[in-house]
Amino acid sequence: METLQNEPVDVIFLDIHLPKLKGTDFLKTLQAAPHIIITSAYSEYALEGYELNVLDYLVKPIEFNRFLIAVNKLKQYNRVVQLAAVHTAVTERLHVYVNVNKKKVKIFIDEILYIESLKEYIKIFTRSKSIFTKLQMGQIEEMLTKNEFLRIHRSFIVAKNKIDAFTATDIEINGKLLPIGRSYKELVLTTLE
Predict the structure, then answer these.
(1) Of 132, 86, 136, 143, the residue nearest 109 (C-alpha)
(2) Which of 23, 155, 158, 179 is deepest in the core (most CB within 10 A)?
(3) How far is residue 63's CA from residue 126's CA, in Å, rounded to a whole number?
(4) CATH assignment of 2-90?
């Protein structure tokens, strides 16, 4: 117990019958237990061990290949935890900041319906608001994820997953009809069909 309080411990191979305390009782005293693999001659404690979230239960005498299975299970569990952490970091909502009246305003990428160019300004439309900022279309296009947005006209970029309907000449998003430019028509239609 002293070692657990003072040192980082990744895994404990724990016997059930200890000199002064049963292994399962020891487990119940731990607040933040490391991974536990029980090693015991008694298989009847296996269910109780799993109820205490042990990683594996090895019955003595332990064959080497069974020991390796337990260790590989630990490695695989750690890999899954790391992947979950990476996935969580990746799934944070993407956003951009744009200047509006001398302050930076956050816009979540997944809320953008479409963007309209107004010479050196753009207007970003979401379901709840529109944001007017001094940016050129090329600049905002570089900030956006290419596979989620589509340039349909020299004056319009649309979020592909927000398109409600389209024809050969226009795209409908949230009740608004946006024209497809002649030079963008082939790309738009092949992307959407």
Answers:
(1) 143
(2) 158
(3) 62
(4) 3.40.50.2300
Residue 58, Ramachandran bin (φ over 0: left; ψ between -120 and 50: alpha; else beta): beta
Residue whose tokens read 């753009």: 122
Q: Domain-by-domain residue ranges, the chain?
A: 2-90, 95-192
Q: Tell me the average pLDDT across 180-185.
A: 92
User: 91 pLDDT band (50/70/90 cuts)?
Assistant: low
The pLDDT tens digits for 25-46 are 888 888 778 899 999 998 888 8
Fold designation for 95-192:
OB fold (Dihydrolipoamide Acetyltransferase, E2P) (2.40.50)
- pTM given for the model: 0.53
pLDDT at position 32 is: 76
